[in-house]
Amino acid sequence: MDSTRFGPLPNEIATRCAPTELDQDTDTHLKGVAHDFSARLLGGVCGIAGTFTVLDDLVAFLRCMLDSTAAPARAGFGPAWTSESLTVQSGSLEPVRGPFWHPAPGAAPSGGIWVHYGFTGTGMWISPSQQRWAVLLTNKLYYTRDRQPLADIRNAFRGLACG
């Protein structure tokens, strides 16, 4: 995963990024800068925003989650972390969540399909029981923050990719 990093990104890398939302202060779309106001206040990264990556790195990450021997080099996590991250950790709080993933909306609870959504539109699904993963790279913030159109697309994609 040599292209995954925290932002803000240097200009030579930021030029490869898709623009996200319109910054009202500069009247330009952000590129290589976290859209999240808290992250920007903290220098570009916080616990909920500021990570930038590419599809190849997401593929490596998800393959390693399903099979830790698939990593080309020693990963920073293993089967125990993967197993723990794909369990509900929120007790009776709603919505139920793990530390990184949560059960995929619209999927049967017994299906073991977990999802991680990025605020800007990315969705990653993983199902160890099916030995399957899927990634949907989208950009919901370019035009609007309205969640429903993208939620419909994400749910349809998950249904096709994972059941």
UniProtKB/TrEMBL annotation:
Family matches, as InterPro entries: Beta-lactam-related (IPR001466), Beta-lactam/transpept-like (IPR012338)
Domain of life, per lineage: Bacteria
Domain Beta-lactamase-related positions: 2-151
Annotated coiled-coil segments of the chain: none
Xref: SUPFAM superfamilies: beta-lactamase/transpeptidase-like
Protein name, per record: Beta-lactamase-related domain-containing protein
UniProt source species: Streptomyces thioluteus
Source species taxonomy: Bacteria, Bacillati, Actinomycetota, Actinomycetes, Kitasatosporales
